[in-house]
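Quick question, first post here. What does this chain look like in 3D?
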Amino acid sequence: MTDTHSPHVTSTDELLARAYDQYQKRTSSSEAMADELREIVPAGVCSTFRAYEPYPVHARRAEGTSIIDVDGNEYLDFALNNGTQLVGHTHQKLSAAVKEQIDDGTLYTRPSDLLEFAAQPLIDRWEAIEQVRFTNSGTESVMHAMRLARAATGREKIIRMEGAYHGAHDPALVSKMPPVDRAGAAADPTPVRESQGIPESVPENILLGQYNDADSVERLLRAHEGEVAGILVEPACFNLGVVEPENCFLQRLRELADEFNAVLIFDEVKTGVKLSPGGGAEYYGIQPDLVALAKAIGGGYPVGAFGGRRELMSQIAADLNEGVATGAAHYGTYNGNPLSLRAVGVTLREILTDDAYDRVAELADRLAAGYRDVIDDAGLEGHVVTAGSQGMVYFTDERIRTFRDWEHVDEEFHEAYWFGMLNRGVIPHPHDASQQWTISVQHTADDIEVHVDAFADLATHLSAAQQ
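> Answer (accepted):
Ran it through. Tokens below.
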């Protein structure tokens, strides 16, 4: 490893250039495969977020806590597919159950006892969930929760937080990390469409508050009284690393939703079962009306879910009155497919046990403490934030509380850190400074030590570039 091991690094640009150079020397097969795939797949990837310069790591296989690329490099993995695999890769118990299910059938399009097997653990873990429906992704889960809130209230507007990510459907791609020079004032944000192809009319029903600023939400509710169907929020904002609620923010949203007869929707796609068995709702002690789930509930298999109070979920109906649906539509051929339901049930009933959470919490504390020691020893500007199995290092002394604080994050510097860690055999978290690491049930104390040692080896060079 030589990319950043020369002590004469004088700038972030130089540090990043050296990291890129070493990365390209180690991953020639990934580079060749990237070139080939771009000819047949846009950007060479199946989700735009996965494309980055100079090209992404191309995987050959994954096992336990490691992922091996097409060049044969093995990486200790703390990205775990955007935190989806709290169970780790190829968990023996989960793999055995899914292989057994393959022999019993992968798609029924009719109910089976697997519905109860997967649904009951979600109902047991979330006080707010009395009934649940399954989907195939987080995008679908949030989309249907929003539709359900509108159906239940007869209103159309949704309040969401500027800079948050809620999936890839049109309303979710309004002001997801927008350029600040286009976003207007924080007190009155200008809606910014992330993508071409989103109709100009979409932002009309999306109202933008600020995370950790309940007053901003209250102002919107008063200005649009009688028009707001729901308040959509992540319990902890995971599109800004790890930003936790402060000053009773979630409690105040609960009170405001009750006062204005709006539906409080927790997007727990990224926080669900990863902060605690009952996700952010349990971790922070605030119960919403609806919960959107995906990712870690299925142990790496494609699945989502949304659930809530019985009177809300009862709005889902297929009944027609003179050709018009009387409830909120929820359709999908692959919804509740037996392969995913088996994965959910085994993950929640047999793998993510109380003992497993205790082990993960201990390792999470150990990793955070290791980072803090290295930051202090190297004289780096930075701090670490953790919540449950999740954590993130910010290379700034400024605390990130809301989207408008993101200006304090030097994304190029973080890129140099990320590639520096990659070249040392550790994927510290999913690519991008906005993401967070995950400690899985398969990680060990030795894995944490390797991660911290890699950071310590890199930290001197980061500190020199930060001066």
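The radius of gyration is 22 Å.
Residues 354-378 form the longest helix (25 residues).
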